[in-house]
Design goal:
The strands form three sheets. Strands 3-8-7-4-6 form a five-stranded parallel sheet, sandwiched between helices. A two-stranded antiparallel ribbon has the order 1-2. By secondary structure, the chain is α/β, with parallel strands linked by helices. It has ten helices and nine strands. The protein has a domain at 42-54 and 134-241: Oxidized Rhodanese, domain 1 (3-Layer(aba) Sandwich), CATH 3.40.250.10. A hairpin with a 2-residue loop joins strand 1 (68-70) and strand 2. 44% of the residues lie in helices and 12% in strands.
Length: 250
């Protein structure tokens, strides 16, 4: 019995250590998974019908600056005013004398060393370059997607596997699986302008296929790509038109 308890205790200790190491490793990684997963619709901005109908790139709108109200009219938050101290000629002279002296010989040696090591100079320049912000596709809801469907100003893209598409899909939707974007892009969207509205969808709100497809299209230069959150099940539950088999371009 004692032998069994030792084995169980040792196994529990190993599991605890492995769990702690896994959590620590995940926390240190830049692409680590969150311990508490947010609802999908809270991970990106949601685009409304007004933006979808406009012939302009789809972008998340910046929030309005916060203001405080004084009386009846809003005013910007007060900014403290710093009054510069008065300097006399004697104070300015003392300030100049207190500055640290830089050796001319040391400065010349530093410039010479940088000139002899261009790699060091280039690496310093690279470190100062700003990192480009990744642009992602945004979400839209079922109602606004249906408005675009009725207006015929959008191309619906089914991101699921071909057998799922042929079983049932949104009427008029084109099949483009996210796994075969590199192979089928030219055939499906090669002649489509990059500013044409594209709406991707897949099986449900937690399906990542539509998100991956939309992000891949944004990376290719498309400026008006959104993901329909509710997917095909939401579309069907609302009584919107769906069909089976293949369609032109599907």
């Amino acid at each position: 019995m004692q032998q069994v308890l030792k084995v169980v205790t040792g196994a529990c200790v190993l599991v605890g250590v492995a769990t702690a190491l896994g959590i620590a490793s995940n926390a240190l990684r830049q692409d680590g998974l969150p311990l508490i997963r947010k609802p999908l619709r809270e991970t990106r901005a949601i685009v409304g019908k007004d933006q979808l109908m406009a012939d302009a790139p789809v972008r998340a709108r910046n929030p309005k600056p916060r203001v405080t109200r004084t009386g009846k009219s809003p005013v910007a938050q007060s900014i403290p005013v710093v009054v510069a101290p008065k300097f006399s000629a004697q104070t300015a002279r003392q300030s100049e004398l207190s500055k640290p002296r830089v050796s001319v010989a040391r400065t010349a040696a530093s410039v010479s060393q940088t000139a002899q090591n261009p790699e060091k100079r280039e690496s310093g320049a690279k470190q100062s370059e700003p990192v480009a912000k990744k642009i992602q596709a945004l979400f839209t809801n079922l109602k606004d997607a249906k408005a675009c469907f009725d207006n015929k100003n959008a191309i619906f893209l089914d991101a699921r596997l071909t057998e799922d598409y042929e079983a049932e899909h949104i009427t008029g939707a084109v099949w483009l699986c996210y796994e075969s974007v590199e192979e089928d892009y030219d055939k499906v969207l090669g002649q489509i302008p990059k500013d044409r509205l594209l709406i991707t969808y897949c099986s449900d709100q937690q399906c990542a296929s539509a998100i991956k497809l939309a992000d891949a299209l944004v990376a290719r230069g498309h400026t008006r790509v959104v993901i329909m959150l509710e997917g095909l099940p939401g579309w069907k539950d609302a009584g919107y038109p769906a069909t089976t088999g293949k369609e032109a371009g599907g």
